Each structure stands twice: as C-alpha cells, then as structure tokens.
Task: structure prediction
Amino acid sequence: MEAAERFAAGSSNGEVAKDLRVSVRSVQRWRRTWEGAGLEGLRSAGPVSTPKLSDTLFVVLEAELAKGVVTHGWPDQTWTLARIKTLIGRCFNKTLSLSGISQMLRRHGWSHQVPARRAVERDETTVVGWAKETWPTAEAPRRRSTPTSSSRTRLASR
Result:
C-alpha cells in the first residue's frame, strides 16, 4: 500500500524499491497491477491454499491429543511431531509434513513443552556411572595435533 502511495506521488520504480528494500522487478509488477486494477488490485487475496485440517477437524485432533499418548498405543507419555503425523493419518486419512504440523500447532496456540522436573524413575547413580564409564568409550578419541609442513612437497619425497 505504501508503494501505491509512492506511485501516486510520482516516485520512480528504483526509488520505491530502494526505500522499501525490495527488488525493482517486484515494484514493476506492483505498478502494473496498480495501473490496471488500482489500489484494490494490490490488496492481499489471502492464503493461496486452504489448510489441510479445518478448524472443526483441529478441534477433533485436540480432543484426541488430550486423551494421551498411551491411549493411542505408544509406550511413553510424549507427543512428538512424528506421532501426531501418524495420529492425523489414522484419524483423518490425511498426510502432512512435520514442518506443516509444527506450523499448524503454533498457529493454534500450541508450543513446545519441556518437562518441569525429572522423571521419578531416574536413577542418578546409574546416570553418573554411564557418563563416566560408557560415554568415554563411545566417543571417538581426539586426534593429537602434530606439526605439519606448509610445503607442497615433503622433504622425504625428494
């Protein structure tokens, strides 16, 4: 809309592009639309596609999520995007990407959750023992740094 005001004031495409930090091609396209259809032609028509899950289907999904993970056959209490994707496939016969599910959940006010406290079943002595004994053997040893030659040919190869 600001570009349309600038067009009416007589600004050039280059000036508008520089001030609005967009490409000159975009400004040219906007000017053609503005000249052909006026200010109404520049208004947004909204999203190109409709969401895969309508608001009524999302309400059903929320109810299914509220039932819990164990109810749907998973052994622990965490909802992951992959599990939500499977649930959507089972309930609605629809396929969404993981990023699409994440965006949909954020759009409806859901956020990533982090546990507020540690699990009751956690055994601190086992965790400490694992970190001291098992982890160092699983981690690849570091390479020791040795002096190298900056020459392209080695002295030993002569």
Q: What stands out?
A: Helices lie at 2-9, 13-20, 24-37, 39-42, 55-67, 81-92, 98-107, 124-138.
